[in-house]
Amino acid sequence: MADYDEAAETNAFGLSMQENEDGKLLLTFAPNDLRFKIDPEGLRRIATEQGHGMLCFDEKALLNAARSVQKNEPFFGSIATRLDAEYHVVISSDRLIAQIEIHPPFGGKALNLDDAFKAVADARISFGLDKAKVVLAMNSELGRPVEIAKGVAAIIGRDTRFEPLVDVNRERVPREKEDGRVDWRDLGDIPIVNPGDPVMRRYPPEKGVIGRDIYGNTVHTVDGKFVDYPHKLEGVERDPHDATLLRAAIVGQPVLLRDSVKVEPIIKMPGVNISSGNVTFVGSVIINGDVQAGMHIKVDGDVTVDGTVEAATIEAGGSIIVKGGIVGQGGGKQRDSAPSAATPSLHAKADIRAKYAENAVLIAEKSVFIEEAVIECDITALEYVTIGTKGRRKGYIMGGRVRATLGIKAEFLGGPGSRQARVMVGVNPLLQQRIEEKKQRIAALVKEEADLKKLIQFLADKPDRQDTMQKAENTLRRIQDSRADTFVEERALTVDAELAEHAKVEIGVRVHAGSTVNVGKASMFIPEDTSFGVFRLDQNQVVFSRA
Question: pTM for this structure?
Fold first, then answer.
């Protein structure tokens, strides 16, 4: 088989090319005895030498033709096409944007500005056209879309907006000093309002702004919805001269709601003891002294204690902040047993913060932060437990049991002698209980919703029962809102449970012998003292590393 000589007469080898009236370059090959080698590029060079080089070649067709020639098999077909310059106007689905794509010619009619404007005219664009960009498209990278027309998008009106006029951030955190140390006693002041103080401003809904597409058609919009303050207000009232303004009705702590602010009452006490009696309150409590042993505090808000908490019981709907320590008279009870009368028991729906804790039971549905040390305590947190501040020679977990779902940080784990400690992350019965409670709540609300829908359907064709139907519809909306809120809460707890798979115990200085670390269902006993490190789960086993 001889190599093909491109300079030779192609017909001598049974190979011919001819352009038809449609601008297609047709290749014909007739098998013969003069077999030769050729590749697609060889065919392209032959076409170029014959004056067809400016055509748009079909690479697949070239390959098929070359294979047929090499196999000495007949071939007839198009391998290239003469193409004029092309102008494509592309309209976005919302009809607000028009782009033009200009493709160069392949041996056909050259680029022409008049043709470009004709393509634009054929697209019937009547608004937002920038003719200069059509010219730009002619001089830009060909084949790249260029925006040539832009409509005006409609603007949906914003619903009623509520602006808090007071600091409603409930979370209080220790302040950092100039030297970088954290002052755990200085948590900032609880925001307090007095009667008459403005607490929230309501702004009216905004009108929607109509738009216009590139065809000049109106793009319709929707006005914002009016949302009023709730009928029932807690600790606040409407300004008698300005219905958009809420003012505090009592002394207390402002708490932000979805479409309002409530003011939780705050009381201040010099201390909680036999003289003051137990405290039950719907708001927050500030105690300027100590809480003595045997006392009981139960509030819906926060509890702030400037002094110490002895063997008392505190239940808070918010956070519990003890600027001194929490001190019991015996070991904190572990597992599921009830604390003794000599054991402080603190349960917060949010965080627990203290300088130190000894022989105490602490339960936080968020996190626990202890400045110096926990000694023989039983601590449970839905999120994190942090003991001490990194870089300081404090932060001891000595004896007792500490549980957190997402992670535990301390400087020292265990202690000399019999101060063995047990820490547990990744599994938290309290979290699983909360998730199950939310699921049960959702199921109950779904049933109520279904029952109400049946009632509304029953009342729909009864004109004399329209008041009842209206009340049922209002109740249905409240239940639907509650179900949505509960679902969000349940999902957040479930995410925490999933994050628990990556929980770890971080010890900054030393792990003492005799301590036990649980991550998920796996456990590791520490037989001898070791330095800092991290405990985490790897292939269902607890592993310890320096990183």
Answer: 0.52
